[in-house]
Amino acid sequence: MPKFSFKDREDIKNNLKSDDYELVIIGGGITGAGVAIQAAASGVKTALIEMQDFSEGTSSRSTKLVHGGIRYLKQFDIEVVADTVTERAVVQQIAPHIPQPDPMLMPLYDEEDVTFNPFRLQVAMDLYDSLAGVKNSKFANKMLSKEEVIQKQPGVMEDGLICGGVYLDFNNNDSRLTIENIKQANADGADMLSHAKAIGFTYDGDKINGVEVEDALTGDKFTIKTQLVINTTGPWSDTIRDLDEKKDYPSQMRPTKGVHLTVDNSKIKVNQPTYFDSGEQDGRMVFVIPREEKTYFGTTDTDYDGDFEKPTVSQDDVDYLLRVVNRRFPKANITLDDIETSWAGLRPLIDGNNASDYNGGDSGRLSNTTFDELADAFEKYNHNELERDTVEDMLADVASNTSERGDGGPSSVSRGSDLSISETGLITLAGGKITDYRKMAEGAMKQIIAILEENNDKKYTLVKSKTYPVSGGQFDPTRVEESIESFANLGASRGLKYADAKRLAKVYGSNMSNVLRYFPEAEKYAEKYDIQLSVALGLVYALEEEMVYSPLDFFERRTTFLLFQFDRMQKIKDAVAQIIQEHLGLSDEEASAQKEELEAQIKETSLAYLKD
Q: What are this entry's molecular-function GO terms (predicted)?
């Protein structure tokens, strides 16, 4: 695995200034990372620039699930759900150390405007299981009585509780998934530069032939020469299109803000991810999810037109989520002061479509007759009385008849993606969601390769991305537990405590052997700065092979310290800052600026501006 360190940044910049590229990707979130890995693995001369740290925007601020979008089945958005559950399985295959199965509990209440009643939930879950291919597995759904829901999740609101269901979902580490794609693209020959902002384009006639770039750290400006440019900047997609002076673009994006809050699990303990109607009769559903001795909950879904780089949590956001969660868990009594950490992220939704993956509005309700016909057809299919093709044709008819209607609210904007190519050659890949990132990238790459083959009279072989693992994922995805155990034992054999080795193995997967290469340096830093050896080991690896530049890069996007290990982070933040300064040879001025950045983010994440 080639080095991927901030120490190599000038060499990468020199490559970008001097080489001729076939593809430049603007945007280093999950969408751009997905395009980069496929482009590089397919032999395309590739560069990627990101104006912040990799995954710093939307791709580190999600609900942290790779989920199947069962919410879509309220509207029978079959195509979306089929794509999503299929892709979820693919992501688990190519990044087996990251998404993990984590079944979801959905309690149902006798209230107005609920998303599912018991009958519809059972039909939806059965359909969902068939689409996901888990119908006869240990992950098959199960309907629960009221008593079983209470037994499974003590403390849940009992008043009005009818019953519930459990179905398969997957947890995720969004920023880790992004960086593992980025690292593999780098290993396959792509040149990747963070803190590099696109500020314009150059042209050959009316066709784009280069990207003008400003180094956000030094102010240096330069041009990357390229045959093609793809815009994968999520909420910033319209901003990048506006840089194209040869073309007027209509606005395409309608970002919405989603907020999540974290408390200690002593305040509210859930035994598994739980998903329920808000009880506000607003069409929203809310997650409550356990993670690392903490519990987090969200999300909101509100239109957003503020600073895309710094979406913040408002008092209204907090009030809403506390009201919903305290209603569903009456003994929790969570207050603002109980909130340890928070995050706000933007969803890159495309205006004019419908059915948000999180809080889909009514994108065309089915009549009772239509629904009953579908339920009957699905039941016949389950008993081998109807062919799958017949059911799929029925579902496709329903999907096509409902997919373009919506109520216009932020919760009814589609998570679907859009691929467009302008007359100037600017390719824009927008919308979508983390679960779909590989499929979105594959669709874009088919177009890109077709253009390059025509222009260059050269053949490219598109990588089989369904089976091409990301960095750290080079092990048997059907033997995850055994593989992680093996990686952990490797760490323990080098002198790590087994529990620490297991934590590292879960984070780094098959890269564990690479991590352990830095044992001597990590030991030196651990002793010098009085920091835990496993933390020092992960930090040195991140500095050498994950392009970490600042403590915030490490705490927020390479690890979960900022969000889920907040108290522990406070104890080690000075040591981590000192190691980064020493290892990268940063000036006192740079180190001081980084510390100020971290402190500002700590105040924002802990909601100090609301608590004060």
A: glycerol-3-phosphate dehydrogenase (quinone) activity; glycerol-3-phosphate oxidase activity
